């Protein structure tokens, strides 16, 4: 019973992290908005099951990376308020990871939806 409670607690902590990121991070709100719009398009255009799989995976990668980026930013700010090249590198690399995923997500969106738009 105790182990079951522990598992539930972990789930709640993870959920609380998702809610915190969604409430406090502007970029997270932007990603969630784009994800919602893409899913509306997916329903409207009746995309295939394979296209749904790629779309959901892409959305998951972008949102997860944005959360990891947010976590890295907060840990860096917790460790030091001073200007430090390692702090800069950590934040810039994490932001770069989100950027790469977001650019790929735009490419995936175009590849999936463009044929439906011009049909
Ligand atoms: N302690 C630091 N030392 C050196 N450079 C830093 C430091 N903190 C931030 N920077 C630089 O400033 C940039 C912006 O950092 P900031 O903490 O404002 O995050 P952000 O990318 O604006 O994200 P958010 O708006 O979500 O907080 C970083 O990408 C980094 O280049």
Automatic annotation (TrEMBL):
Mn(2+), Zn(2+), Cd(2+) and Co(2+) support activity to lesser extents. The active site is at 66 (proton acceptor). Substrate binds at residue 66. ATP binds at residues 13, 25, 73, 91-92. Keywords: ATP-binding, Cell membrane, Kinase, Lipid biosynthesis, Lipid metabolism, Magnesium, Membrane, Metal-binding, Nucleotide-binding, Phospholipid biosynthesis, Phospholipid metabolism, Transferase, Transmembrane, Transmembrane helix. PANTHER family: DIACYLGLYCEROL KINASE. This is Undecaprenol kinase. It comes from Anoxybacteroides tepidamans.
